[in-house]
Automatic annotation (TrEMBL):
Pfam families: AP_endonuc_2 (PF01261). Keywords: Isomerase, Signal. This is Sugar phosphate isomerase/epimerase. It comes from the Bacteria. It comes from Pontibacter diazotrophicus. The keyword Nucleus does not apply. Residues 1-25 form the signal peptide.
Length: 281
């Protein structure tokens, strides 16, 4: 007899399957990665030179989910919110998220994000600098207020980590303060897996300690010697292991990100997409 609990567990598995594991019934080791996203900072110069043309190239490669980033031409690379919404939809892609700052233009930033129809608005750096427990508690308060603003517009607020958040004061990891001092239903985290690993930490440890708190990921490989990003399969991150723990983290969307390249950025973008397509989970 199927219970409600069984149904919910099955529904949860199917929801994850729609994102990552379309062949879930075939069992572990045969599922494929689907709905690959990309952080547009990866192709920042290309977006500034020709936003529409670059989006077309990404669509042709196979990318489906997009995350924007602030640029010299504004939040959407010179495009208007409704304009980028239509362009991406026409290309079969969805603008899911955007990297922004909490500043004097915050209200306009939230309003613009609502116009694009995106689900998430991600603060990309600390709005108040200072590597102290006191400052991180202050930042947590700022995030809570920003999250309320976003909620009113139907948007989910989150924060994207770098390397410095994993420093400690008096033995306390500063990043953990942001998690502990904010409402998990209101303030989400976009975990940059590469930076976590570069600091000597394991993302899975965070998935275990804060299950469901990380609906967004930045998926990047890292060269530990150079301390910079690299193409998938050339660095220190076990991408397959990360994907196998997606459900535990609460991941709904992930965005491929690479900041440094061995050659042309678009070549790296193609390599990373093809690497994921060849992967079985």
């Amino acid at each position: 007899m199927n219970t409600r609990r069984d149904f919910l567990k099955s529904s949860g598995a199917m929801a994850l399957g729609a994102l990552l594991l379309p062949n879930l019934a075939a069992g572990k080791g045969t599922a494929k990665v689907n709905n690959v996203g990309i952080q547009l900072y990866t192709v920042r110069n290309e977006m500034l030179a020709d936003a529409v043309g670059t989006l077309k190239q990404l669509a042709q490669i196979g990318y489906k989910e997009l995350e924007s980033a602030r640029s010299e031409k504004g939040l959407y690379y010179g495009l208007q919110p409704k304009e980028i919404k239509k362009i991406t939809e026409d290309l079969g892609m969805t603008l899911r998220s955007g990297h922004v700052g909490i500043d004097k233009d915050w209200e306009r930033t939230v309003a613009a994000a609502a116009e694009t129809g995106q689900d998430y608005l991600i603060c990309s750096s600390l709005p108040s600098r200072g590597q102290t427990v006191s400052n991180y508690k202050h930042v947590a308060d700022i995030f809570s207020k920003a999250a309320e603003d976003c909620k009113k517009s139907g948007i989910i607020f989150g924060y994207h980590n770098h390397e410095y958040e994993f420093e400690k004061e008096n033995g306390q990891v500063l990043y953990d303060i942001l998690l502990d001092e904010t409402d998990p239903e209101l303030v989400k985290m976009e975990l940059d897996l590469g930076w976590v690993i570069l600091t000597g930490n394991d993302p899975i440890t965070y998935f275990d300690k804060y299950p469901g708190r990380f609906p967004l990921w930045h998926l990047k490989d890292m060269d530990k010697t150079k301390r910079e990003s690299t193409e998938f399969g050339k660095g220190a991150i076990d991408i397959k292991r990360m994907m196998q723990n997606a459900e535990k983290s609460g991941m709904k969307y992930f965005f491929v990100e690479q900041e440094e390249y061995a050659g042309a950025a678009m070549d790296s973008v193609k390599h990373n997409y093809q690497y994921l397509q060849k992967m079985s989970i």
